[in-house]
Amino acid sequence: MTYKQYAVHPDLKNWIRYFWSYDVCTSETQVLHVRSFADRYPRLIFQDIRSFSPIKGADGGIKPICYLSGVDTQPTDAFWDSRFSHFGISFQPHALHTFFGINAADLTDQMPDIGLLDKTEIAALLTEAHDHLERVALLSHYFYKKIAQAKGDTIINNLFQGDWADRLDNEKSLAAIASHYHISERQLQRKFKQNVGVSARKFARIAKFEKSLQAISSVQYGNLTQVAYDLDYTDQSHFIKDFKFFSGLSPYDFVRQANLGSESASFIYPDPMV
C-alpha cells in the first residue's frame, strides 16, 4: 500500500489540512474492511473506479465517485477489494460550512455526493486527471475560488487559527472564549455547531478520543489507567466508555487488531469473513 500526503498552498491552510492519496495495485484478490471511527476532520474522497474497485458501504451500496464526509461522531464500516486508488482532502473542522455555505450539522455523520452540494464537474475532472499531483492542482484551484466567494464566520475562523479549539471541554473555557469575542456563550455554541456540525463539548470529546487512539497504540492494555490519567479522564471506566462510544470497540479490542494501514481515524483490516 502506498500512502502519501501532499502540501497545501498557504492561502488554503486555514481550511485544508492536507491532500492525501492511497493506492494499491496487486494481482492478489482480497476484500478489505475499513472501519472509520469518530473523526473531527471532514473529508473529501475521490475514488478512481476506471481500473480499480469501488468503495462499498456496509449495506453493499457503491459510494459516489467523489463525496464528502462531515464530522463523524460514530463508527462506520466500508469494504473494497485490494486493488484501489483513492485521493482525498482532510479539511479543518469548520471548512465545509465555509466552502459550501451549508449548516455543517446537516453533514454530521453523512457522506453526500459532492454534486448534491455544488453543481460542478469536479468529479469528471478528477477522473480525467493524469495523476494525484494534477488532482492537488485541480482541487486547490477549485477551493481557492470558493474562498474568494465565501462569507466565513470571523469568530469561528479565528477560533481554529489560534489555540482556542483545544480549550472547549468545560463551561469555564467556553465562557472565557465567549467573553473574549464579546458574545454570549449561547451564541458561541450556535455558531460552533453551525460551522462545525457538533457542539463544542462533543467536539472536545472527539478530540480527546483521537488522542487516545495514538496513545494506546504504543502501550500495553494494563497501562490504560495511565492513558486515561494523561488525557484527563475522570477514571479508566470513563475512558473506556468514551472509547467504545466513538469506535465501537473496547481499547483492548482495538489494540489487538493488527491493521494494514490508516488515514486519519480510519483503519484498514483484512476481512476475516472472506
In brief:
This protein has 274 residues and is of the alpha+beta class. The protein has a domain at 2-151 and 262-270. 38% of the residues lie in helices and 19% in strands.
Low-confidence stretches: none
The rounded distance between the terminal residues' Cα atoms is 20 Å
Largest sheet: 5 strands, antiparallel
Number of strands: 10
Number of helices: 10
Helices and strands, in N-to-C order?
A: EEEEEEEEHHHHHHHHHHEE
Multimeric state: single chain
Write down the overall geometry: globular
Mean pLDDT: 89
The class by helix and strand makeup works out as alpha+beta
Strand fraction equals 15-25%
Radius of gyration: 19 Å
User: Strand arrangement, largest sheet?
Assistant: 1-2-8-4-6
The proportion of residues forming helix, as a percent range, comes to 25-40%
Could you walk me through the main structural features you see in this protein, from its secondary elements to its overall organization?
This protein is an alpha+beta fold and 274 residues long. The protein has a domain at 2-151 and 262-270. Helix content is 38%, strand content 19%. The protein has ten helices and ten strands. The chain has helices spanning 95-100, 122-128, 132-149, 154-161, 171-180, 185-196, 200-216, 224-230, 236-247, 251-256; strands spanning 2-6, 16-24, 31-36, 43-47, 56-57, 66-69, 76-81, 84-91, 261-263, 266-270. A five-stranded antiparallel sheet has the order 1-2-8-4-6. Strands 5-7-3-10-9 form a five-stranded antiparallel sheet, with no helix packed on it. Strand 9 and strand 10 form a beta hairpin.
